[in-house]
Protein backbone atom coordinates (compact mmCIF):
# COMPACT_ATOMS: atom_id res chain seq x y z
CA UNK A 1 0.00 0.00 0.00
CA UNK A 2 2.81 2.44 0.86
CA UNK A 3 4.45 1.90 -2.54
CA UNK A 4 1.10 2.36 -4.32
CA UNK A 5 0.49 5.66 -2.52
CA UNK A 6 4.04 6.74 -3.38
CA UNK A 7 3.50 6.13 -7.07
CA UNK A 8 0.30 8.18 -7.02
CA UNK A 9 2.08 10.99 -5.20
CA UNK A 10 4.95 10.85 -7.67
CA UNK A 11 2.63 11.18 -10.63
CA UNK A 12 0.96 14.16 -9.00
CA UNK A 13 4.29 15.84 -8.23
CA UNK A 14 5.68 15.21 -11.67
CA UNK A 15 2.52 16.44 -13.35
CA UNK A 16 2.86 19.73 -11.53
CA UNK A 17 6.27 20.18 -13.13
CA UNK A 18 5.09 19.52 -16.66
CA UNK A 19 5.03 22.49 -19.01
CA UNK A 20 1.64 21.55 -20.34
CA UNK A 21 -1.11 19.01 -19.96
CA UNK A 22 0.25 15.83 -21.52
CA UNK A 23 -1.40 12.43 -21.69
CA UNK A 24 0.05 10.08 -19.04
CA UNK A 25 1.73 7.85 -21.64
CA UNK A 26 3.48 10.83 -23.22
CA UNK A 27 4.52 12.30 -19.89
CA UNK A 28 6.03 9.09 -18.55
CA UNK A 29 8.78 9.08 -21.14
CA UNK A 30 9.32 12.82 -21.43
CA UNK A 31 9.78 14.31 -17.97
CA UNK A 32 12.42 12.61 -15.76
CA UNK A 33 15.44 14.42 -17.24
CA UNK A 34 13.83 17.82 -16.69
CA UNK A 35 12.66 16.95 -13.20
CA UNK A 36 16.16 15.94 -12.11
CA UNK A 37 17.30 19.55 -12.49
CA UNK A 38 14.63 20.79 -10.12
CA UNK A 39 15.18 18.72 -6.96
CA UNK A 40 18.58 18.15 -5.43
CA UNK A 41 18.71 15.40 -2.77
CA UNK A 42 21.69 14.65 -0.52
CA UNK A 43 21.68 11.39 1.46
CA UNK A 44 23.76 11.39 4.64
CA UNK A 45 24.19 8.72 7.26
CA UNK A 46 25.90 5.63 8.61
CA UNK A 47 25.85 1.96 7.60
CA UNK A 48 22.06 1.71 8.06
CA UNK A 49 21.85 4.16 5.14
CA UNK A 50 24.90 3.08 3.13
CA UNK A 51 24.00 -0.62 3.10
CA UNK A 52 27.48 -2.05 3.78
CA UNK A 53 26.70 -5.77 4.12
CA UNK A 54 26.38 -8.20 1.22
CA UNK A 55 22.75 -8.91 2.14
CA UNK A 56 22.08 -5.26 1.22
CA UNK A 57 23.43 -5.62 -2.30
CA UNK A 58 26.67 -5.06 -4.16
CA UNK A 59 29.08 -2.17 -3.83
CA UNK A 60 28.58 -0.07 -6.95
CA UNK A 61 31.30 2.58 -6.64
CA UNK A 62 34.79 1.87 -7.99
CA UNK A 63 37.41 2.64 -6.99
CA UNK A 64 36.05 1.92 -3.53
CA UNK A 65 36.31 4.62 -0.89
CA UNK A 66 35.62 2.22 1.99
CA UNK A 67 32.16 3.61 2.78
CA UNK A 68 30.52 0.51 1.26
CA UNK A 69 27.43 2.05 -0.34
CA UNK A 70 25.43 -0.80 -1.89
CA UNK A 71 22.96 -0.91 -4.75
CA UNK A 72 20.06 -2.17 -2.62
CA UNK A 73 20.44 0.43 0.11
CA UNK A 74 17.39 2.66 0.46
CA UNK A 75 18.82 5.81 -1.20
CA UNK A 76 19.66 3.80 -4.31
CA UNK A 77 16.31 1.99 -4.27
CA UNK A 78 14.47 5.31 -4.07
CA UNK A 79 16.63 6.81 -6.81
CA UNK A 80 15.49 4.00 -9.12
CA UNK A 81 11.89 4.17 -7.91
CA UNK A 82 11.46 7.87 -8.59
CA UNK A 83 12.79 7.79 -12.14
CA UNK A 84 15.01 10.85 -11.97
CA UNK A 85 12.69 13.15 -10.06
CA UNK A 86 15.64 13.83 -7.73
CA UNK A 87 19.32 14.22 -8.49
CA UNK A 88 20.83 12.10 -5.71
CA UNK A 89 24.19 12.70 -4.07
CA UNK A 90 24.71 9.78 -1.66
CA UNK A 91 27.67 10.31 0.68
CA UNK A 92 26.55 8.02 3.51
CA UNK A 93 29.34 5.94 4.99
CA UNK A 94 29.58 2.82 7.10
CA UNK A 95 30.68 3.48 10.71
CA UNK A 96 29.92 7.22 10.46
CA UNK A 97 29.18 9.12 13.65
CA UNK A 98 27.10 12.28 13.96
CA UNK A 99 30.38 14.24 14.04
CA UNK A 100 31.40 12.65 10.73
CA UNK A 101 28.21 14.03 9.21
CA UNK A 102 28.63 17.46 10.77
CA UNK A 103 32.26 18.54 10.59
CA UNK A 104 34.77 15.72 11.17
CA UNK A 105 36.50 13.77 8.41
CA UNK A 106 36.28 9.97 8.56
CA UNK A 107 38.66 7.12 7.83
CA UNK A 108 36.39 4.46 6.33
CA UNK A 109 37.04 0.86 7.30
CA UNK A 110 35.47 -0.93 4.33
CA UNK A 111 35.03 -4.57 5.31
CA UNK A 112 38.18 -4.70 7.41
CA UNK A 113 36.88 -6.23 10.63
CA UNK A 114 39.64 -8.35 12.18
CA UNK A 115 39.43 -11.08 13.34
CA UNK A 116 36.23 -11.61 11.31
CA UNK A 117 37.42 -10.35 7.93
CA UNK A 118 40.36 -8.66 6.20
CA UNK A 119 39.80 -6.06 3.47
CA UNK A 120 42.50 -6.17 0.76
CA UNK A 121 41.96 -2.46 -0.04
CA UNK A 122 42.34 -1.30 3.58
CA UNK A 123 43.40 1.33 4.68
CA UNK A 124 41.31 3.87 2.79
CA UNK A 125 41.98 7.62 2.48
CA UNK A 126 39.93 9.89 4.70
CA UNK A 127 36.61 11.18 3.37
CA UNK A 128 35.44 14.73 4.16
CA UNK A 129 32.58 15.55 6.54
CA UNK A 130 29.35 14.53 4.85
CA UNK A 131 27.80 17.96 5.31
CA UNK A 132 30.21 19.30 2.69
CA UNK A 133 28.01 17.62 0.06
CA UNK A 134 25.18 19.98 1.05
CA UNK A 135 24.95 23.33 -0.75
CA UNK A 136 22.54 26.27 -0.97
CA UNK A 137 20.96 24.53 -3.99
CA UNK A 138 20.07 21.39 -2.01
CA UNK A 139 16.31 20.88 -1.77
CA UNK A 140 16.07 17.82 0.48
CA UNK A 141 18.47 16.18 2.92
CA UNK A 142 17.95 12.73 4.39
CA UNK A 143 20.08 11.71 7.33
CA UNK A 144 20.21 8.46 9.27
CA UNK A 145 22.84 8.53 11.98
CA UNK A 146 23.33 8.25 15.74
CA UNK A 147 24.00 4.58 16.46
CA UNK A 148 27.78 4.89 16.27
CA UNK A 149 27.79 8.00 18.45
CA UNK A 150 25.82 5.97 20.99
CA UNK A 151 28.35 3.15 20.57
CA UNK A 152 25.80 0.46 19.74
CA UNK A 153 28.26 -1.88 18.01
CA UNK A 154 30.49 -1.78 21.06
CA UNK A 155 27.53 -2.51 23.30
CA UNK A 156 26.71 -5.59 21.25
CA UNK A 157 30.29 -6.81 21.52
CA UNK A 158 30.41 -6.29 25.27
CA UNK A 159 27.03 -7.91 25.76
CA UNK A 160 28.13 -10.97 23.81
CA UNK A 161 31.26 -11.28 25.93
CA UNK A 162 29.43 -10.87 29.23
CA UNK A 163 26.59 -13.13 28.12
CA UNK A 164 29.09 -15.82 27.22
CA UNK A 165 30.63 -15.63 30.67
CA UNK A 166 27.23 -15.89 32.34
CA UNK A 167 26.26 -18.80 30.05
CA UNK A 168 23.06 -17.06 29.06
CA UNK A 169 21.82 -16.25 32.54
CA UNK A 170 20.66 -12.92 33.96
CA UNK A 171 21.41 -9.42 32.69
CA UNK A 172 25.20 -9.10 32.99
CA UNK A 173 25.43 -6.40 30.33
CA UNK A 174 22.69 -4.26 31.85
CA UNK A 175 24.27 -4.69 35.27
CA UNK A 176 27.65 -3.50 34.00
CA UNK A 177 26.68 -0.75 31.54
CA UNK A 178 23.20 0.63 32.29
CA UNK A 179 24.40 3.56 34.37
CA UNK A 180 26.34 4.96 31.41
CA UNK A 181 23.49 4.91 28.88
CA UNK A 182 21.84 8.24 29.86
CA UNK A 183 25.12 10.08 29.23
CA UNK A 184 25.47 8.42 25.85
CA UNK A 185 21.94 9.41 24.88
CA UNK A 186 22.55 12.97 26.07
CA UNK A 187 25.60 13.13 23.79
CA UNK A 188 23.53 11.87 20.85
CA UNK A 189 20.89 14.51 21.43
CA UNK A 190 23.42 17.34 21.79
CA UNK A 191 25.37 16.38 18.67
CA UNK A 192 22.20 15.74 16.67
CA UNK A 193 20.89 19.21 17.53
CA UNK A 194 24.14 20.76 16.34
CA UNK A 195 24.18 18.66 13.16
CA UNK A 196 20.67 19.81 12.21
CA UNK A 197 21.70 23.42 12.79
CA UNK A 198 24.78 23.05 10.57
CA UNK A 199 22.77 21.39 7.80
CA UNK A 200 20.17 24.13 7.92
CA UNK A 201 22.86 26.80 7.74
CA UNK A 202 24.44 25.14 4.69
CA UNK A 203 21.10 24.77 2.89
CA UNK A 204 18.55 27.22 4.28
CA UNK A 205 15.80 26.24 1.83
CA UNK A 206 16.25 22.48 2.25
CA UNK A 207 13.84 20.18 4.05
CA UNK A 208 15.68 17.81 6.38
CA UNK A 209 14.32 14.29 6.83
CA UNK A 210 15.73 12.44 9.83
CA UNK A 211 15.48 8.67 9.43
CA UNK A 212 15.16 6.56 12.57
CA UNK A 213 16.38 3.03 13.17
CA UNK A 214 14.29 -0.11 12.51
CA UNK A 215 13.29 -2.76 15.01
CA UNK A 216 16.30 -4.94 15.65
CA UNK A 217 15.22 -6.90 18.74
CA UNK A 218 11.71 -8.39 19.13
CA UNK A 219 9.49 -7.84 22.16
CA UNK A 220 9.55 -11.59 22.70
CA UNK A 221 13.26 -12.21 23.18
CA UNK A 222 12.67 -15.95 23.58
CA UNK A 223 12.70 -15.99 19.76
CA UNK A 224 16.42 -15.20 19.94
CA UNK A 225 18.03 -18.55 20.67
CA UNK A 226 21.05 -18.18 22.93
CA UNK A 227 24.31 -18.94 21.16
CA UNK A 228 22.86 -18.60 17.64
CA UNK A 229 25.26 -16.40 15.63
CA UNK A 230 22.60 -15.75 12.97
CA UNK A 231 20.74 -13.93 15.74
CA UNK A 232 22.53 -12.33 18.70
CA UNK A 233 25.01 -15.06 19.55
CA UNK A 234 25.65 -15.12 23.31
CA UNK A 235 23.68 -12.03 24.41
CA UNK A 236 21.23 -13.10 27.11
CA UNK A 237 17.48 -12.70 26.68
CA UNK A 238 17.39 -10.31 29.61
CA UNK A 239 20.06 -8.11 28.09
CA UNK A 240 18.29 -8.13 24.73
CA UNK A 241 15.13 -6.85 26.41
CA UNK A 242 17.19 -4.11 28.07
CA UNK A 243 18.91 -3.15 24.79
CA UNK A 244 15.54 -2.87 23.06
CA UNK A 245 13.67 -0.91 25.74
CA UNK A 246 16.36 1.27 27.31
CA UNK A 247 18.85 1.74 24.49
CA UNK A 248 17.38 1.43 20.98
CA UNK A 249 13.93 2.83 21.70
CA UNK A 250 15.50 5.72 23.59
CA UNK A 251 17.92 6.32 20.70
CA UNK A 252 15.00 6.71 18.29
CA UNK A 253 13.21 8.97 20.78
CA UNK A 254 16.30 11.18 21.10
CA UNK A 255 16.49 11.55 17.32
CA UNK A 256 12.77 12.25 17.01
CA UNK A 257 12.85 14.82 19.82
CA UNK A 258 15.85 16.57 18.30
CA UNK A 259 14.15 16.71 14.92
CA UNK A 260 11.11 18.28 16.55
CA UNK A 261 13.14 21.35 17.50
CA UNK A 262 13.76 22.26 13.82
CA UNK A 263 10.92 23.76 11.81
CA UNK A 264 12.38 22.51 8.51
CA UNK A 265 12.95 18.95 9.78
CA UNK A 266 10.74 15.87 9.97
CA UNK A 267 11.19 12.36 11.35
CA UNK A 268 10.63 9.03 9.57
CA UNK A 269 9.73 6.20 11.95
CA UNK A 270 11.12 2.87 10.74
CA UNK A 271 10.77 1.18 14.12
CA UNK A 272 7.00 0.68 14.14
CA UNK A 273 6.54 -0.73 10.61
CA UNK A 274 9.40 -3.19 11.11
CA UNK A 275 8.45 -4.54 14.55
CA UNK A 276 7.56 -8.03 13.24
CA UNK A 277 10.73 -8.31 11.17
CA UNK A 278 13.56 -8.21 13.70
CA UNK A 279 16.76 -10.25 13.66
CA UNK A 280 14.88 -13.06 15.42
CA UNK A 281 11.69 -13.15 13.32
CA UNK A 282 10.93 -15.67 10.58
CA UNK A 283 11.01 -12.98 7.87
CA UNK A 284 13.85 -10.78 9.02
CA UNK A 285 14.63 -7.35 7.66
CA UNK A 286 17.79 -7.12 9.75
CA UNK A 287 20.55 -9.73 9.72
CA UNK A 288 22.14 -11.08 12.88
CA UNK A 289 25.81 -11.25 13.81
CA UNK A 290 26.46 -13.41 10.76
CA UNK A 291 24.51 -14.35 7.64
CA UNK A 292 25.00 -17.94 6.57
CA UNK A 293 27.16 -19.39 5.27
CA UNK A 294 30.00 -17.04 6.17
CA UNK A 295 29.07 -13.38 5.85
CA UNK A 296 29.73 -10.99 8.73
CA UNK A 297 26.62 -8.82 9.09
CA UNK A 298 26.85 -7.43 12.63
CA UNK A 299 23.14 -6.58 12.90
CA UNK A 300 22.43 -4.53 9.76
CA UNK A 301 19.38 -4.25 7.50
CA UNK A 302 19.22 -6.55 4.50
CA UNK A 303 17.62 -5.76 1.13
CA UNK A 304 14.12 -6.29 2.57
CA UNK A 305 14.84 -3.84 5.37
CA UNK A 306 16.10 -1.25 2.90
CA UNK A 307 13.02 -1.80 0.73
CA UNK A 308 10.84 -1.00 3.75
CA UNK A 309 12.93 2.07 4.54
CA UNK A 310 12.67 3.18 0.92
CA UNK A 311 8.86 3.03 1.00
CA UNK A 312 8.66 5.33 4.01
CA UNK A 313 11.46 7.71 3.05
CA UNK A 314 10.01 8.02 -0.47
CA UNK A 315 6.77 9.27 0.99
CA UNK A 316 8.63 11.82 3.12
CA UNK A 317 10.65 13.01 0.10
CA UNK A 318 7.52 13.55 -1.96
CA UNK A 319 5.84 15.39 0.90
CA UNK A 320 8.93 17.61 1.17
CA UNK A 321 8.56 18.84 -2.40
CA UNK A 322 4.76 18.76 -2.49
Structure, described:
The structure is a single chain. The protein has helices at residues 2-17, 24-30, 32-36, 47-50, 74-81, 98-102, 147-150, 152-165, 172-177, 181-202, 237-259, 303-321; strands at 40-45, 87-90, 140-144, 207-211, 265-268, 290-291, 295-296. Residues 1-36 have low confidence and may be disordered. It is of the alpha/beta class and 322 residues long. The chain has twelve helices and seven strands. It has a domain at 30-150 and 184-216 and 251-281 and 301-321: Rossmann fold, CATH 3.40.50.1110.
What's the topology here?
Blueprint: H1 2-17, H2 24-30, H3 32-36, E1 40-45, H4 47-50, H5 74-81, E2 87-90, H6 98-102, E3 140-144, H7 147-150, H8 152-165, H9 172-177, H10 181-202, E4 207-211, H11 237-259, E5 265-268, E6 290-291, E7 295-296, H12 303-321
Parallel strand pairs: 1-2, 1-3, 3-4, 4-5
Antiparallel strand pairs: 6-7
List keywords for this structure.
322 residues; alpha/beta; Rossmann fold; five-stranded parallel beta sheet; two-stranded antiparallel sheet; 12 helices; 41% helix; disordered N terminus
